[in-house]
Amino acid sequence: MMRYLFRRLSHASLLVFGVSLLAFLFTTLAPGDYFDEMRLNPQIAPEALVALRAQYQLDRPLPLRYFSWLNSVLHGQMGFSFSYNSPVAPLLLVRAKNTLLLTITATLLAWVIALPLGIWSAERLGRFPDRLISVSTAVLLVIPDLVLALGLLVLAVRTGWFPTGGMASVDFASISPVHKIRDLAFHMTLPVAALVLSALPLLVRHVRAAVAEVLHAPFLLAAEGHGIPRGTLLLRYVLPAAANPLLSLFGFSIGALLSGSLLIEVVMSWPGLGPFLLEAILARDIYIVIGGVLFSTIFLAAGNFLADILLYWIDPRIRTENASR
Amino acid sequence: MEPILKVENLVKRYTKRNLVGVPQEFLALDSVSFTVSAGATLAIVGESGSGKSTVASCIACLETPTGGNLWFEGKNLAHAAENELRNLRPQIQLIFPDPASSLNPRWTILDIVAEPLVVQGKLSRSERMTRAFSLLERVGLSAEIAERPASELSGGQRQRLAIARALTLQPKILILDEALSALDCSVQAQIATLLIELQSSLGMTFLFISHDLAMAAYLADEIAVMSRGQIVEHGPAVKILQTPASEATRQLLAAVPQLSHAPQPAAQR
Amino acid sequence: MSGEILGVLGESGSGKSTLAASVLRLLPPNGEISGGAVLFEGNNLLQADYQELRQIRGGRISLIFQEPSLALHPTIRVGEQVRQVLAAHQSSAKKELAERTREIFNRLFPEDADRIARSYPHQLSGGQRQRALIAQAIACNPAIVIADEPTAALDPVTQAEILAVFRSLREVLGLSMIFITHNPALLSGFADRILILYAGQVVEWGPANSVLQSPRHPYTRALFESLPPAPADSGKNRKQMLLVIPGSSSPTSLPRKGCSFEPRCPLKMDVCREFEPPLVKLGETHILSCFKYQ
Q: Could A325 and B20 be called an inter-chain contact, meaning their C-beta atoms sit closer than 8 Å?
């Protein structure tokens, strides 16, 4: 078991390392840098720019810059932001927290809705309720996330039920804790709704497929023949057998926690990683960009790794298959 | 007369590698030797795990033996080069135990029979079709169903199809690896009769691998009994069955379920 | 009958598996029982409600499906699968359930019972899986066990072992069985009564000795004669042709007029095509359905 996990872990680490290298290369090799804007300003002398660049080590050769960045990562700072004049890590962390608030809620909600819906659909395969769900998920799948988000915003504007953006009302600091929570919830509703609606179709379809396959398996009929009650059948026979594809999907859900909501955040002005990274890309604040990419990659790799662990734990066939390799 | 197939000290070892520790070795065939005369039927019987399917795979050139020699018409299959093997393989055909999974259910019957000819690439399309139809007729599958997908066939019909496909390239040896075991009794009789008829008209050599001693006894001239990777007894069928010498043979004989009466001869009606 | 073994002989397409599943109403969604009755302990199972049916399934009547490798849940240990059956019918404490599970495993696996109970199905051999299925079936001491081709996937030595297991269960537990197979030889010396199915209809039934030694129905006779001779006898009539029943018994889509075996019957008469054959009694208990013996 340890060997299996160790192998998976080393794959994940290699992945993260490789991505960091590529991200670094692509962002730094792209033409231009942070100080290009300043060049347009006639009041700043060219020598000052050269000095600034040297100060921020932008004139050093690429490999050296990469290693000094790596060094910075290992010290927990992840490079330096030009715009904010601060190490990148704390900036990213604050924003990441906001993003995670959104995505964790949305992911949990999506799974909580998708599982029963998928199971229900699978039990009535081919009949009207199943077809209804299939059509609805197909429609949701086709609608672009952007349109979905904008549609929800329109709803907010027209009805005034929900705030149209941001994470907190203007008077946030001065209201009571209970009201703070309520305020947060209201602000979260639309972005979470958008995320859930865009994630739901994929999940429901996968759950439906995985469960449908198990529902017609001989061992399930045999268990029914032994008089096992319906509840036990579902929880302890159907779900574990359908777990394989679903766990992989779950790992992917975890992996997308930091990266899946970028668009929605920008549209709904949620102060998460999305708008922050966008701004940094436009301003050529490269270390923020690279840091953001690294963060997302780590989550992705962790998500996959988690899925692997769960699969190993749940499916004994994977365990013995690995033992005999 | 020179035997068509001569197996000499055949050894097959499988290695199982764990993540840690010494790789485990499993000796499937422990110096197996026997000969088969042309036009005869040799039955190889034994319990599960005795190695009989491994012998079949090695002779059909699906597996490479770890040691020993496999003489087929004077050529050593165990040490032949790949291009030589490519020419020799069509002459030894294998019929698998499970008719449901050894044929692609989506292909039509005609396509399945014609496939070996397509791969061989020597005949034109119309020649291939003619040959395919005549083969289907030979095994008792009517031409009407030739365009249907294989999934519509019953178990017995699928085995007929498998036999037809095996006959496409006019093999000299046909290996039947538990080919009848998955079939109903009356269907087994049908296929067995077909095989006997094919052997007498085409002069083929059969290697019948089974754990069904009764059917093996019925079809075979000689029987070889295997146990744990070795041949423990080999001789004319009648002699082995009436005077078994080894414990393994006795066990197999004792395990054969029999109707408690002798079947009434067909003539009496 | 209690304590008896009823052998049901039928080939593919005869409806034997459908029969087995129908007793407990375990048909696939496109199957429907349109008539008849299944009487058990005074009740018609076809009219039982879900709760009653669930109690009977596994509790009073058990069904052992074909294909042991498919009938066991792939990711639950076999011991746990047996325990689940117990838990579904008895509201005993955990300790008692565990105790009973151990007892059952010890009975079916004289050696290594604990290790096997902790194993997963893919770690067991064919014979061991079959025994695990039997363990599930007898867990709650049912009145009847229906076994659908329990030895089909096994080699003869293991086959003989499993038959011995069934015999000992009958002796020790007084178990009644319905043993479904396509091989008549298995029922010899094993079943008390035999019932022959062809294309969804019963064509002959009666005491085992009577049916095996003097079969009357043309299908039954043809079936027995299509078996290869016993190995010990093979010297006497070598290469004598096995009787081949021409054609095949593919399931018919429409209920047909007349006898279902008529197209392939060597003794067929005109009346066989038109009308369903009557039941004919040979002696007290041996009954068949054929015009020839009227």
A: no
